[in-house]
């Protein structure tokens, strides 16, 4: 009896240690976010008065308002709003196109195999390992020839072509687990290439579509290098504008505005994760289980 | 008129020839079973009939029309797959209707066809379920329903029962047989299970290495196998194949088989053609005896052989007795309780069912 008791109290002690560790790590991890949120809600004077970590004495949304619509980027004081719109105009078509093309690629590479299909897939995989920096100059030249240099459609083209490798990989690996007999049955039923894709294959692929969208959305929304290289001025995406707000300041550095701007730039990816995150995990493991 | 003609059809992947000049022809209402082990080319042949594989050489005709260059949907066929291949996101009704929708069948007609087929297969109460909510047997029925509403000239079944458990397999086998009798359709059915072939087929094509070994009615394949391969493949336990020497006795022959420590077995009165008698008298051959063609010798017929039983395996309805004959292990199917391990027994053989094979070519001697 006594032994059993000490056994269970030992267990409880172990549990306590684990939770303590988890809490400490979580606090450490959340610390920067805490500083960002509190700082963004403080007036600038309070920050310069020395309060950096504590709760704001006066809560104000002025910094958020400034970051959104008043902060100066270069010579124009429009806030992040137009760049946020730029990013949306870039990310929506880029995600839709790269996911769509990846889905068709994966469908062809698994269900309409042609001689050398695996070789082609290997080449596409190769694209996943290309560092961004390596393609900057050839891409700039290509965009110039296409007349898309410095524009949002140009940036969309870059992200689509760079994203296809990843989305093809996702869809190909997902479709490989769908039995070939499914396509054969549909062919016997009289369905053609696109009919099978639309009516049979795509409806079974919701989890992997979500994975592909989340992945592409975060990659493209958060991208800075392509944005700063291939756009300029008013066509920049929000990451470039954020950099300009933070790095180009006259007078006192506006920490509260910087923090608010950074959070505005991060909100869309957060929202995507919260809304679709559970599909993300499900989709990543879905290929392993036969339905 | 024949519904399906397979005319010297070949299939090769590069230099690898998987089908070598296969010719099969069946009539309306026939139930053809392509029987063989995995890798014999039977599924490839079925896929070629369906139009899912290209034809390297020869011609396939359905109802007299060459279909080599037609796509599956234009061949007037329907197919049931091993994995059922039901569309996972569609309900049973949508699964059955899918083909008709593509062919733009009017909605009222679609509804009627679904109703007829689902009544026939007793799946009416499942129409609004998804495939994942069905049992294996139910999925099987839905797959058949999808094929039936097509009203094709030719039904193709690709090992449809191999994913079911043993009990259900027997039930569905009966179901398919009943369906065939009621609809009178022409069916090509692929399986590696010789019992399915025997029970379902009106014609069996036994295949091996891309060659049809024998094409005949099931009973003929069982009684008169074309070669040693077919003899061993069809029937369970398999036909006993024993080396023997032939002695001519007038128009018939006697097969003499060595038995260790005993006088040789003499299976007399096997009928052969006069040429075969001349050709094989005094030669070594292979004798094929089905387990059930052995019996305990009774008074009026003299025994053909006397042996000692090694192992005795009672199965209930009968007893399998194993003994040595001509240097190989031989199984006899005897009535229960007639054999005991270690017991000496005198057996007779039904010579009308005994078949002989050439020892080199392993083909049947007539």
Automatic annotation (TrEMBL), chain A:
Keyword Transmembrane helix: yes
GO annotations of cellular component type: plasma membrane
Transmembrane segments: 16-37, 88-108, 120-140, 152-175, 196-218, 257-281
Domain of life from the UniProt record: Bacteria
Domain ABC transmembrane type-1 as annotated: residue spans: 84-276
Main location: membrane
A GO BP annotation: transmembrane transport
InterPro entries found in the cross-reference section: MetI-like, MetI-like_sf
Keywords: Membrane, Transmembrane, Transmembrane helix, Transport
Location of the protein in the cell: Cell membrane
Protein topology in the membrane: Multi-pass membrane protein
PANTHER family listed in its UniProt record: ABC TRANSPORTER PERMEASE PROTEIN, GLUCOSE IMPORT SYSTEM PERMEASE PROTEIN GLCU
Family, per entry: Belongs to the binding-protein-dependent transport system permease family.
Protein's name according to its UniProt entry: ABC transporter permease subunit
From TrEMBL, chain B:
Gene3D superfamilies: 2.40.50.100, Nucleic acid-binding proteins (2.40.50.140), P-loop containing nucleotide triphosphate hydrolases (3.40.50.300)
Gene: ugpC
Record Pfam families: ABC_tran, OB_MalK
UniProt record similarity statement: Belongs to the ABC transporter superfamily.
Name the UniProt record assigns to this protein: sn-glycerol-3-phosphate ABC transporter ATP-binding protein UgpC
NCBIfam families: PRK11650.1
GO biological process, alphabetically ordered: carbohydrate transport
Domain ABC transporter per the UniProt entry, residue ranges: 4-234
GO cellular component terms listed in the entry, alphabetical order: ATP-binding cassette (ABC) transporter complex, substrate-binding subunit-containing
Assigned keywords, A-Z: ATP-binding, Nucleotide-binding, Transport
GO MF terms held by the record: ABC-type transporter activity; ATP binding; ATP hydrolysis activity
Phylogenetic placement of the source organism: Bacteria, Pseudomonadati, Pseudomonadota, Alphaproteobacteria, Hyphomicrobiales
PROSITE patterns, per the entry: ABC_TRANSPORTER_1, ABC_TRANSPORTER_2
Recorded topology in the membrane: Peripheral membrane protein
Subcellular location: Cell inner membrane
């Amino acid at each position: 009896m006594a032994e059993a008791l000490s056994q269970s109290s030992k267990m409880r002690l172990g549990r306590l240690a684990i939770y303590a560790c988890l809490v400490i790590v979580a606090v450490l991890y959340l610390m920067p976010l805490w500083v960002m949120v509190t700082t963004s809600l403080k007036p600038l004077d309070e920050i310069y008065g020395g309060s950096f970590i504590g709760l704001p004495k006066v809560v104000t949304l002025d910094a958020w308002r400034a970051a959104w619509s008043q902060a100066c980027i270069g010579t124009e004081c429009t806030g992040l709003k137009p760049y946020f719109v730029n990013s949306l105009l870039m990310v929506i078509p880029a995600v839709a196109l790269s996911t769509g093309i990846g889905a068709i690629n994966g469908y062809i590479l698994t269900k309409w195999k042609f001689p050398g299909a695996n070789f082609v897939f290997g080449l596409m995989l190769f694209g996943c390992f290309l560092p961004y920096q390596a393609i900057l100059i050839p891409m700039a030249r290509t965009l110039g020839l296409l007349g898309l240099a410095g524009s949002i459609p140009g940036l969309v083209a870059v992200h689509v072509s760079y994203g296809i490798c990843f989305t093809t990989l996702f869809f190909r690996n997902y479709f490989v687990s769908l039995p070939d007999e499914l396509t054969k049955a549909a062919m016997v039923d009289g369905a053609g290439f696109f009919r099978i894709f639309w009516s049979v294959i795509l409806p079974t692929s919701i989890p992997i579509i979500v994975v592909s969208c989340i992945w592409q959305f975060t990659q493209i929304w958060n991208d800075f290098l392509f944005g700063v290289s291939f756009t300029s001025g008013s066509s920049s995406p929000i990451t470039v504008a954020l950099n300009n707000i933070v790095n180009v300041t006259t007078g006192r550095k506006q920490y509260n505005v910087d923090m608010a701007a950074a959070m505005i730039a991060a909100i869309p990816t957060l929202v995507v994760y919260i809304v679709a995150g559970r599909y993300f995990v499900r989709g990543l493991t879905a290929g392993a289980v036969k339905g | 008129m024949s519904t399906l003609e397979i005319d010297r059809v070949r299939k090769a992947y590069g230099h690898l020839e998987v089908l070598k000049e296969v010719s099969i022809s069946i009539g309306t209402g026939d139930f053809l079973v392509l029987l063989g082990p995995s890798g014999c080319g039977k599924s490839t042949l079925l896929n070629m009939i369906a139009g899912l594989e290209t034809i390297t050489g020869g011609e396939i005709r359905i109802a007299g029309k060459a279909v080599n260059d037609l796509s599956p949907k234009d061949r007037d066929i329907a197919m049931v797959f091993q994995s059922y291949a039901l569309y996972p996101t569609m309900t049973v009704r949508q699964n059955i209707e899918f083909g008709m929708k593509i062919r733009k069948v009017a909605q009222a007609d679609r509804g009627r066809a679904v109703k007829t087929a689902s009544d026939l297969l007793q799946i009416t109460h499942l129409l609004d379920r998804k495939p994942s909510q069905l049992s294996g047997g139910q999925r099987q029925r839905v797959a058949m329903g999808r094929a039936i509403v097509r009203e094709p000239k030719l039904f193709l079944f690709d090992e449809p029962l191999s994913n079911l458990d043993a009990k259900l397999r027997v039930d569905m086998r009966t179901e398919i047989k009943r369906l065939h009798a009621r609809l009178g359709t022409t069916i090509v059915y692929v399986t590696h299970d010789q019992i399915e072939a025997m029970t379902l087929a009106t014609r069996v094509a036994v295949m091996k290495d891309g060659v049809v070994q024998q094409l005949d009615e099931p009973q003929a394949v069982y009684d008169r196998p074309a070669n040693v391969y077919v003899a061993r493949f069809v029937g369970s336990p398999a036909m006993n194949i024993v080396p023997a020497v032939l002695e001519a006795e007038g128009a018939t022959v006697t097969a003499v088989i060595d038995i260790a420590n005993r006088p040789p077995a003499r299976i007399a009165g096997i009928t052969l053609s006069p040429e075969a008698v001349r050709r094989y008298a005094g030669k070594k051959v292979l004798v094929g005896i089905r387990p059930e063609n052995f019996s305990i010798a009774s008074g009026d017929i003299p025994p053909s052989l006397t042996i000692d039983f090694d192992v005795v395996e009672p199965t209930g309805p009968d007893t399998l007795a194993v003994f040595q004959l001509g240097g190989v292990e031989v199984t006899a199917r005897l009535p229960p309780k007639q054999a005991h391990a270690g017991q000496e027994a005198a057996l007779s053989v039904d010579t009308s069912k005994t078949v002989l094979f050439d020892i080199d070519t392993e083909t049947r001697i007539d």
